């Protein structure tokens, strides 16, 4: 429907955007057949001109209630109109007489109350806002006035709100149809209350909807000749039987199973039920509860609805016994038997569930086991019993559950119809069709195939109805429409239902042959439809096939097509349940009629569904149809979210876009003569002037602009697709030129008017300004004279004030300076005293430090000098080493040195004791002085307190009028003096404390030093004792050496007086000389810590050791 013409730079258009389907923007550049669009969301899009759609910039801000009123009837226009109305909570929109209902996912109670019903009752269609009540009212009025049956077709995907819309339709029809009573209960009440019953047994949670109808429903509401409801009937189609045994996460099984598990405890005990998580048919999915829904309350509501529709208590009990039995049947498991291809119950748990199911179904447990695990084959010769393997037994079990549930649902529908009652004399009815919408999932089976087949049928009916409406419109306006082509989907229907070569026929044929499989069925489809344009064979699968439906291509998996198509009851199951002791269950399985022909032995779901669908289509063709298309705005099921891509797909699946295509194939744009001339009269003003015929004027405008293919009706102008956009483009050009001309004239007029106004204003301004200047000059002169006088008085006042201020300031400054001088003098005296104290302390410290340095230097000098003397003595001793008497002298000298060192140690001990006593005396003196100062301070504080109390007493006894007396001043001065003395005492006390702390610190340091010296003295005493022992041993050696020397001398005198002493005597003599010579140095080094002297002694001793 796009067009590459009439798009110019500056045009507002719709362009495709994958994320949001369509986005609006402005054309900023055109290159050949491509255009660059600046989108409203800020993006720049390049698209072909043929894929662009013009945007109506004059559209109403709130959208239009009927989309046939849109200037541009195309996909983005329809989508934008729905989105705009949805934002305003306008969920209903017309497309001709088709109602589009967008699910709001919230309660809008004001739209469905009795007041709203009263407003729409009898109102002409289109006069009020779009509403589901308007469609129901039109159908009801048409039935009353024309005497013809009507039908309302409600369609849409799961979660679009079909069920709720159907309820609203039935409520409104019940409101219009009055109150025809039947056995104490009204027909409309029974019809409305049949919904909860059918929802409990036919609805389930799916991926897209929490309450999805898994069957099609056509409700026939019958009316008498007075327009009152006289009867009703419910027709159902294609219940999804496979859901009983197969569900996927996060879906749920049918609601009735969960409602029964939430029943009161006495009923659970009665049916031996537990938590739904324990049942195989329910725990295949992890979803057991619905958000915001109480299964317990819904169970009670379903019971009440059963009472209203006429189901007795005994029948209700039997119904829920069947439901409980199905849950127990699902928990029966099989294992391999002893025989080949046989099966037995797996364990005691399976046996319990089988016995419970048999008890609920009131049949024999043994026969029940045989019905599940065995098959009977009847031959002309004999009857053969064949055992089933565990897999086949499981399939038999699931088939049994599906069959009994399907029969139960059919019984419910029949019971509701019989309870409501049908009017055989009714001539008119209104049918409400609530049927599943087009479905396309990741995995599509036989159910989706039948659903999409139904939607293809309904789409053809819808297309024919829309085309018929177009024909009526064209005929009414008397225009030629014979060449308009009609878009039909008959080829898809032929592919599905044609005999003998359709998909359903081939499926029935495959089901008749026992050896047929889904693979052979798929190969048969490939061979038959390999050249069909609607049939697609996937490249990567051998059993799947795809069909190109009107809403898109759907890929089907044929794995279970054959099993799901077979509609027969196993003979063993039929016999088992027919023999049930419960009349209700036996009634669900009546004896089959006698088969008269061979062809009647096989019955298929597809064939039966095809017959039901054909009957439905015959019913719809015999009625006047009305269409309601339900749309789900988002997949998260939340309000105020509108997903463009999702809605566009649903519009395509619902046939709305197909209807638009049908309209666009003819004349999609229609305008009355007045609207057309009002909008496009500016294109040819000469055609309107002097011409009162609107039809001729419209035709002249279109011919003048060179348009072809348009039609002029009796009251409207019919334009082909794209012609409205072309006229709008030309209208935009004319308006642009006119706007530029008007802007030029207006700007000239504005500038001329502005110039004259400025000139007039300038003259007035000059006159006013000159007068203002004269007034200002006079005022200035007067102000100058006044200011001189004011300045004179002010200066005199300021001079007097300044003089007084200076006098007072001088007095204050003098007092402050005198106080400061006194404080400075006091501070100087205080600092002088502190400086004298510090100087004394420092000089004492410096003298003490100098004394210590002199002492250390003297010791060093003594050491050096004694070392020098020792070296000289060493040289002398070397010369006198041979003399034995030298050893004696050395011994005496060493003893003298030891005595001297002992005396020094004692002297140092005595000095240390005297020092400690002196320090203790000094500390006691400091402590006594501190105590005296503290006592003086306490005395001063006591005096001060007494004086303060006396002052307070004097103030209290003084008369009220305070007089200045010298006593108060003297007391105040005395108080200040005392405070100053106290502050001085505190300062002196603080300084004394600091001195005491410093002395204490010095005392601790001296004590530490004395301890170190004491340690050194003790070490020295130990070493002296060791040295004395050494000397004693040395004396013994010397005595031995002397005796040996005497002997040697005698020998030397006798043998060789002139020979040198032997090496041994010489070595001994050298040792003695070394000891005598270095002993003072060693002792001196031990006392004063002179390591150098000690090393000399050690080195010489080492040399001696080497010599010895």
TrEMBL record:
Which residue range or ranges hold the Myosin N-terminal SH3-like domain? 8-57
This protein's superkingdom?
Answer: Eukaryota
GO MF:
actin filament binding; ATP binding; calmodulin binding; microfilament motor activity
Extract the InterPro entries matched here: IQ_motif_EF-hand-BS, Kinesin_motor_dom_sf, Myosin_head_motor_dom-like, MYSc_Myo11, P-loop_NTPase, SH3_Myosin
> Positions of the region Disordered?
989-1015
- The entry marks the following residues as binding ATP, namely 156-163
Tell me if Coiled coil is a UniProt keyword of this record. yes
Q: Which family does it belong to?
A: Belongs to the TRAFAC class myosin-kinesin ATPase superfamily. Myosin family. Plant myosin class XI subfamily.
Q: Which GO terms describe its biological process?
A: actin filament organization; actin filament-based movement
Q: This chain belongs to which protein, by name?
A: Myosin motor domain-containing protein
Q: Which residues form a coiled coil?
A: 891-950
**Key words, A-Z:** Actin-binding, ATP-binding, Calmodulin-binding, Coiled coil, Motor protein, Myosin, Nucleotide-binding, Repeat
* SMART domains noted in UniProt: IQ, MYSc
Tell me the segments the record calls region Actin-binding: 613-635
Q: Name one Pfam family in it.
A: Myosin_N
Q: Domain Myosin motor, which positions?
A: 62-732
GO CC annotations on file: cytoplasm; membrane; myosin complex
